[in-house]
Amino acid sequence: MREPSRQTKEALAHVQAPWDAARTERTLRALPTVRRKKQVRRAVGGGLFAALLLGPALWLGIVRYDAGHDARAAHDTRQLRLADGSSVALLETRTDVAVERVDEHLVALHLREGRARFEVSVRPERVFRVRTAEVTVEVLGTIFDVEQRAGRTRVSVTRGRVAVTWENQRAVLVAGDDRLFPPPASAPEASPDDPAPDELTGPLGASAERPRASAVRAHAGETRAATALDVARREPAPSAAEVSSSAPARTRRSARTAPKEERSEEQDTSWRDHAEGGDFKSAFPLLPKTDTMATMSVADLMLAADAARLSGHPRAALPFLARVIEVHREDARAPLAAFTLGGVLMHQLGLPREAEAAYARARATTQSVALQQDALARQVEAASRAGDEALASKLAREYLDQYPDGRRVNAVRRFGRL
Amino acid sequence: MRDAPADGSGESTLGPLSLEEAYRRFAPYVAAIGMRIVGRSEELDDLVQDVFVEATRGIASLAAPEAIKGWLARIAVRTAVRRLRRGRLFRALHLQLDDARDYESLASPDATPEQRALIARIYTALDRLAAKDRAAWVLRHVQGETLEQAAELCACSLSTYQRRLRRASAQLDKELPHA
Questions:
Q1: Is B80:B47 a contact under the CB 8 Å cutoff?
Q2: φ, ψ for residue A179 (rounded to 5)?
Q3: Do A34 and B49 touch (CB under 8 A)?
Q4: Which of A5, A337, A373, B73 is surrounded by the fewest CB atoms within 10 Å?
Q5: How far A78 CA lies from chain B's nearest CA (Å)?
Q6: What letter does residue A345 receive in the DSSP assignment?
């Protein structure tokens, strides 16, 4: 038996597990679900064994997981097949579906967590019902997705019709519909780096669906913004190395979403489904590469940037934002991209000097008074964090002159040392 | 010692530690063993979770709770071997959906390109070994365990372990004569 050579030993010393505290926390959070699923699997295994012994009498009993069930790490989708011919695709690792009843009159499932697609066989005499914490969905022959997340349930219908009931209310969804239940009382929550929601209802708007060409106003900020863009340009788009190993199954593109002319159809679009659903961690590994950015619409570039920065990959967001700012500078969303870039640089990457330039650019190019005000306040903060007290003080005075009753007065005074 | 119920229904303890404490402290160690044996980062989450789930079920049988690290390591080796066998079976049945191997990514960022390439060659050769032989070789030459420790982790006698190690080394000598 020969010992490995010194060279081999040295090489093998470099074998390491890509494991860090974040991965520990992420997998720890999922541990209860894994335990529960293992218990279910053991129970199902025992049941199947019993069913084999008892013969076909238990044909109503649930079923089988497909061969991919154990290959959770692989990019597959787990399938639950019901005795009535319907099937449930568990679209996320965390998806937890309990089968409450399967008989000739009623199939009742409980989606406790995650996202699943239900493909229901047509049987007029039988009711197919899926409940979550918030809603109950009833169908007759259809394909639809249900996602339970953070106190809300998203229902997307691919084919047929479904009835959704919640809190004594009822809505009928048809193919192509994609809605959140209970319906949101207000606009979606903005991320910490985005302007406050009320600002986003201004001329720029947070919604990427409202492009409006804006005249670019000359401003001193244009020059300083180059430093922020330099940082952004240097960053590559997400590489294979950054891609998480736990990427979920690629899903069918849903019928919802932004206008078709906004889309770049040649590319894989499954990342968009995840991102639009708020599942940025799943979206990030699927993001398009840098060399395809030229074909991406502004809406997609902004969404890709969100998927990167909100999934904990701020550097990967930079090229997408830089492209909007530079190439689509006439687009109404370019200032918003600059503002977002400022947030990424200051709060996530610790580059306040570059962030200050990005905020200056946002302020110089937007027509939204709300965004101008907010960008100026953030400029003060960024200048202060960068140690440029003179600039911070100057900008703070400018803010107080223009917006004496502005809602960031206190923060501006603090950072401007006034 | 707070034992978990035999049915594993729930209590989040691992001997003297809560499950969370044990997980935070030992998950990186378990991951390192699993990664070195299996060689696939994408299986790591499942593997580590499986180890801890199994550990919570079997902790009652652990005579000395302070030996939890070794206990987890043994489960990690067993789980990794099981995954290797299952992967092989799935491939044989054409059920493996994602069979791409990127063993160069096993190397730490400071490894040279030559070292990365060598690691990839070794792990590709290890793919052709029996799972238990592979684990035996990895524990000795990658994990750096002594013969006795490695035998204990493999839950076999020293002579059995040495037999596996000899078999693995002989096979690797044939495939990588200069390594």
A1: yes
A2: -140, 155
A3: yes
A4: A5
A5: 12
A6: I
